[in-house]
Write a structure and sequence with these properties.
It contains five helices and 22 strands. By secondary structure, it is an alpha+beta fold. A hairpin with a 2-residue loop joins strand 19 and strand 20.
Length: 425
């Protein structure tokens, strides 16, 4: 066979065999229709299934559960609150009554002194000399009086013999009276010089806490009143101590009405800024004779016992004054009170479980509980927990609770602010 062979066309029988072996293909137009229509049909079928699916029935909400309790019934004492300062019951400025050089200071600054205790000594030597001179003048006047008495007695014995005229007798009588007056003046000067001598020893006029010395030993001090005299120190009487405060005209009228009704209105209780309880008691002893027209307040004062001298003038305090007799009061938790614009309401639950809102009149907070002056009865069931779930007109389920006083935390002790700090070594 030659390498170069002629190519001959295929025979008709061969073409027929090839056609029988190749599978038949669909036309191109039908293929494109299937590719587009099949996804669209699936999407439409899924959407129809979602829109025609049956919705489940809505379940009814459960009835809310709240805690209820009857109001707490207690006998209460009504108090009015005031803020004021402590003041010394007596305050004295110690000034010298004689002028001279200060030679001694006999106390420690800030100590407690007793009435009559020696505080300062002024140089007594000039006053001792003046006292001696006055006593000498008194002795001379006493001698002149004795001579006048002797002369008048001698003249009276000579009257019977007509040896002395009436004029001489009158002169001798006048000399006697003059000598007696001179002696009285001399004795008065002696007492005056003795007082000056006593005033060189300055003593405490009252008992109390003394301030620091304003003049040291060696300085000259001047006697006098007010600013003309040298101020040596001051003394404040601390037991008892005063508590001064200002009250409004409304509180003053309230106290007067209660006093007219026979209520006790003189007892006061006071606490300091770092105290939680009103542990200090006293009594009201003074109210001013008029109301200040500029501020509309009246000044009052209470007397507080201070045996340990802990209270000092100038300290702030909170005072409450009894405003009436004891009365029965209802108490609820302060969280149970709701505000409806200007009204205060409480939610109560009836026997059928239906909630109702009651408008109430409120009082102060005592031991964490709010005093209710009116609007509810002692037998009402007040919602104390779950007030946000209870709506007026709806029904609720209840569980029993209890209204109890809330213990108040003690106030932390006051501490001075520290300006700077360093690490300890």
């Amino acid at each position: 066979m030659n390498m170069l062979s002629p190519i001959r066309p295929p025979l008709e029988s061969e073409e027929t065999a090839d056609a029988a072996l190749t599978p038949a293909r669909p036309p191109r137009r039908w293929r494109r229709t299937l590719q587009i229509g099949l996804p669209v049909a699936l999407v439409l079928a899924g959407g129809w299934g979602l829109t025609h699916r049956e919705a489940p029935a809505n379940a009814a909400p459960p009835i809310p559960v709240v805690t209820v309790a009857a109001p707490r019934v207690r006998d209460m004492d009504e108090w009015d609150d005031y803020v004021g300062r402590f003041e010394a019951s007596q305050a004295v400025e110690v000034r010298p009554r004689v002028s001279g050089q200060l030679v001694g200071v006999h106390f420690t600054d800030g100590q407690i002194v007793r009435k009559g205790q020696l505080l300062f000594t002024i140089d007594p030597r000039p006053f001792a000399a003046a006292l001696a001179e006055a006593r000498a003048e008194a002795a001379s006047a006493r001698s002149d009086l004795a001579l006048a008495q002797t002369n008048l007695a001698r003249a009276n014995r000579l009257v019977a013999d007509d040896a002395v005229s009436q004029s001489d007798l009158d002169q001798l009588g006048a000399k006697l009276r003059a000598a007696s007056a001179a002696l009285a003046a001399a004795d008065a000067r002696v007492r005056s010089r003795a007082l000056d001598m006593e005033f060189t020893r300055v003593r405490a006029p009252i008992s109390g806490r003394i301030s620091d010395r304003r003049v040291d030993a060696g300085n000259l001090v001047a006697a006098g009143e007010g600013s003309t005299g040298s101020l040596l120190t001051t003394i404040n009487a601390l037991d008892p101590i005063y508590f001064s405060f200002n009250g409004s005209e409304g509180l003053f009228l309230k106290a007067k009405r209660a006093e007219e009704a026979g209520a006790r209105g003189t007892e006061v209780q006071i606490r300091l800024q770092d105290e939680a309880d009103y542990s200090r008691t006293g009594r009201l002893d003074f109210t001013d004779n008029g109301i200040d027209p500029r501020s509309g307040t009246i000044r009052g004062r209470a007397v507080i016992a201070n045996p340990d001298l802990f209270l000092s003038p100038g300290m702030f305090g909170n005072m409450r004054l009894a405003s009436g007799a004891s009365e029965r009061a209802l108490l609820v938790t302060d969280a149970a009170v709701q505000t409806d614009q200007a009204r205060k309401t409480l939610l109560v639950v009836g026997k059928d479980g239906q909630v109702a809102a009651r408008e109430v009149r409120l009082g102060p907070v005592v031991d964490g509980l709010r005093v209710v002056r009116g609007g509810i009865a002692p037998t009402d069931r007040v919602v104390i927990t779950g007030t946000q779930l209870a709506q007026p007109g709806t029904k609720v389920q209840t569980r029993a609770g209890r209204i109890a006083p809330v213990a108040q935390a003690a106030a932390p002790p006051s501490q001075a602010l520290v300006g700077e700090a360093t690490f300890a070594r």
